[in-house]
Specification:
With 506 residues, the chain is α+β, with helices and mostly antiparallel strands. The protein folds into three domains: 152 residues, Schlafen, AAA domain (Methyltransferase, Cobalt-precorrin-4 Transmethylase, Domain 2); 186 residues, Heat Shock Protein 90, CATH 3.30.565; 60 residues, Orthogonal Bundle (Arc Repressor Mutant, subunit A), CATH 1.10.10. 36% of the residues lie in helices and 18% in strands. The protein is built from 19 helices and 20 strands. The strands form seven sheets. It has a six-stranded mixed beta sheet, covered by helices on one side. A hairpin with a 2-residue loop joins strand 5 and strand 6. The longest helix has 16 residues. The radius of gyration is 26 Å and the shape is globular. The relative contact order is 0.08.
């Protein structure tokens, strides 16, 4: 989306923040713009505006920002492109439409829109050293990312996730027998004819991805997934002393009572993830309503709400970054809902998560382990299922809160009914349901068919139209359109703000 001059003036009234940076840039491109570019790309995206003078001592937003304009706007634009395409930064994620001039009479501003970078491109950094040149954004401006934050971005580039790494010197002796016996029994009930049931424990864990033998490196042992899911508490704390598991029941708190029940490290249980999941899940769901329902003369106590709550818990486990410097897996039961908090920022933009169809778990082996005993889904439909369940019950839409400073994500599930305030806050435009034929292939193919159907009905579409139609982030929309143009499915017409796409005249 490109801003008009008046829209920029209104945006300035909110002041600089996590998505806006102003620079004077009277006659030359300021060097600090590349730090802001890195910060926005590594956080949630934002806009950089050249030609704005800020008086930081002035509290009144209308007086704090003075629109001065810049000289040689076209030349500064060219200079910026020449530098960003050079060696100043490691990767340029911008396209032509992201850098543009806005004018009001003789006053010209240069706007640079920086999208959030895809997880497999981060970190975006200045210079040649990611540990020195990577920036992030908070409400106060740009700041150097810590070494742990940079390492987290590099880990997220791995298409195979984080949990298949072998932990040297940790063996089957570090697996808790009772936990693993309980899991295998559950697996046997869910999969009575599965060939893995005849395997011994080591072979069975290997099949799940919890134990590996890297012949090339000459090492074998438990993986991150194997130790965290089924390990004994002491070995887990030896390796992952940075991670803490905590459940609190705050459904009847008062000034004198902080919680009614708590599960944390107290020496009474082996604190692995599978134990944490099974112990806490029972407590989360025990008070949920169970309407009387029979199937084959047996009562069925499971409901979509039970499944949604378990799905939320599964998401916490499979999306956590267990290799961060510090983090808490926190589950809170409240009188009016639940909160699930995990270490690690979102790998995908919120729009794509709410839309569904993609699954980018940090811990795909853990995802498999839970799915094989009936918990979770790895086809990207888990979160939309939670949304649908909450919507069908008339509750306020679940909210994902990403904190890029603390590097954690919180999912809030509330039983409250939507108010005008929450409707405005959580309303999301859903993609159009128009399609051509039945699409049973990958989500990309489905999105391409939706684009073709939309243009067939409307004659043309701009990038913003397509982004809104599919509910995708700008970066993914650009990628999809470029792919369709290259494949001859679309023709691009016009330049700049007038650029749009039509179906080829074949």
């Amino acid at each position: 989306m490109k801003f008009t001059f008046d829209e920029l003036k209104k945006k300035l009234l909110s002041g600089e923040g996590v998505d806006l940076e102003c620079k004077e840039a009277e006659s030359t491109v300021p060097k600090s713009v590349y730090e802001s570019y890195s910060a926005f790309a590594n956080t949630n995206g934002g806009d950089i505006i050249f030609g704005i003078k800020e008086n930081k001592k002035e509290k009144n937003p209308e007086k704090r920002f003075e629109i001065q304009g810049i000289k040689n706007a076209i030349k500064q634009k060219e200079d910026f492109w020449n530098t960003i395409n050079g060696s100043k930064v490691n990767t340029n994620i911008l396209v032509d439409d992201d850098v543009y001039v806005v004018a009001d009479g003789e006053v010209e501003l240069l706007v640079i829109h920086v999208p959030r970078a895809e997880y497999n491109l981060k970190p975006i950094y200045v210079g040649e050293n990611p540990y020195k040149g990577t920036f992030k954004r908070n409400n106060e401006g740009d700041y150097h990312a810590t070494e742990h934050e940079v390492r987290a971005m590099i880990r997220d580039q791995n298409p195979n996730g984080n949990d298949s790494t072998i932990i040297e010197y940790y063996t089957m002796d570090d697996i808790d027998p009772e936990t693993f016996r309980a899991y295998r029994q559950m697996f046997r009930v869910m999969n009575p004819e599965h060939v893995w049931n005849s395997c011994d424990d080591k072979e069975f864990l290997t099949m799940l991805g919890g134990y590996r033998n890297d012949r090339k490196a000459g090492v074998e042992g438990l993986t991150v997934a194997g130790l965290l899911m089924f390990g004994k508490g002491l070995p887990i704390r030896d390796v992952f002393d940075n991670i803490f598991m905590d459940y609190r029941d705050e459904s009847n708190v008062s000034t004198d009572v902080r919680w009614n029940d708590r599960i944390t490290y107290d020496g009474t249980w082996e604190n692995n993830l599978f134990n944490f999941f099974t112990k806490v899940t029972r407590k989360l769901t025990e008070d949920l309503k169970k309407p009387f329902k029979l199937e084959n003369i047996e009562r069925v106590d499971d409901t979509p709400v039970h499944k949604a709550v378990r799905e939320a818990f599964v998401n916490l486990i499979i999306h956590s970054d267990y290799l961060m410097d510090a983090g808490v897996l926190k589950v809170i039961k409240k009188a009016n809902g639940f909160e699930f908090t995990n270490p690690g920022v979102l790998k995908l933009p919120k729009e794509e998560i709410y839309h569904g169809g993609l699954s980018k778990a940090r811990n795909p082996k853990m995802q498999t382990m839970l799915r094989m005993v009936g918990f979770g889904d790895n086809a990207g439909s888990g979160f939309p299922a939670i949304l649908e369940t909450w919507k069908s019950n008339g509750w306020v839409e679940p909210e994902l809160i990403e904190n890029t400073v603390l590097n954690q994500v919180t999912l809030v599930l509330s039983f409250e009914e939507p108010s005008e305030k929450t409707i405005g806050k959580n309303h999301r435009k859903k993609p159009s349901e128009k399609t051509i034929g039945k699409i049973k292939t990958a989500k990309t193919a489905e999105n391409k068919q939706k684009i073709i159907a939309y243009i067939s009905s409307n004659g043309k579409a701009k990038r913003a139209d397509i982004s809104e139609l599919l509910g995708l982030a700008e970066a993914r929309t650009r990628e999809l359109i470029t792919e369709m143009v290259d494949e001859g499915l679309l023709d691009a017409v016009g330049e700049g703000r007038s650029r749009h796409y039509i179906l080829p005249n074949k």
